[in-house]
Write a structure and sequence with these properties.
Elements: H1 2-22, E1 75-80, E2 94-100, E3 105-110, E4 116-122, E5 125-130, E6 138-143, E7 148-151, E8 157-161, E9 167-173, E10 181-182, H2 183-188, H3 196-203, H4 207-215
Antiparallel strand pairs: 1-2, 2-9, 3-8, 3-10, 4-7, 4-9, 5-6, 5-8
Helix pairs in contact: 3-4
Domain Cupin type-1: 61-211
Binding site for oxalate: 106, 111, 116
Main location: secreted
Length: 217
């Protein structure tokens, strides 16, 4: 019995260890404002001397400003991560404002380190995400002003403005640095590039199609 309990405690310890490293650690102090000038490399950002902290370390201004959507996607994303707001360091949260031109799109992408929740401030959007293997099920819905939608961590998702006027959303993400992997850019625009032969076989298309797509990224 004692041996079985010992094994159980070991398994529990391993489980809690994995949980601790699966998400951003909880802060061990009131705050840890990031120090961009630090040469220390850690999982996150090094802390600034608390005696040098100012109110502006916890402040960001700009989410009231309309983004420039004059680009092929008709999209502008204004992030508020630890890079823009140092006081977010170790707090496990960030924000975004997304502007969409009429029929603009936020292409399929993932946030490898965060769940995302958005609320529509203006406009009408079709949003959706795709479940993982083996179902690859599309979960999609049309959102209107005031609606809220959540995209689970790591899943491929998208948003498209489906109206003839601009749209705006405000979102929050469960990481100070959620990251973003745009599917098209990652697959067809990596540096160095993935072999066209590999992609042609993976997507079951002619190599010329792959080369055409690569030229766009």
């Amino acid at each position: 019995m004692a041996k079985q309990i010992g094994h159980l405690l070991t398994l529990l310890a391993l489980a809690f260890c994995c949980l601790a490293f699966a998400f951003e650690p909880k802060p061990l102090q009131d705050f840890c404002v990031s120090d961009p000038n630090s040469s220390v490399f850690i999982n996150g950002m090094a802390c600034k001397n608390p005696m040098q902290i100012q109110a502006n370390d916890f402040y960001f201004r700009g989410l009231h400003l309309k983004g420039n959507t004059s680009n092929p996607f008709g999209l502008m994303v204004q992030p508020v991560t630890v890079a823009q707001l140092p006081g977010l360091n170790t707090l496990g949260i960030s924000m975004i404002r997304i502007d969409y031109a009429p029929w603009g799109i936020n292409p399929p992408h993932t946030h490898p380190r965060a769940t995302e929740i958005i609320t529509v401030i203006e406009g009408t959007l079709q949003v959706g995400f795709i479940t993982s293997y083996p179902e690859y099920r599309l979960i999609t819905k049309v959102l209107y002003q005031g609606d809220v939608f959540v995209f689970p961590v790591g899943l491929v998702h998208f948003q498209q403005n489906v109206a003839n006027k601009s749209a705006v959303v405000i979102g929050a993400l469960s990481s100070q640095n959620p990251g973003a992997i745009m599917v098209g850019n990652a697959v067809f625009g990596s540096k160095p590039t993935i072999s066209s032969e590999i992609l042609a076989k993976a997507f079951q298309v002619d190599k010329k199609v792959v080369d055409l797509l690569k030229a766009k990224f």
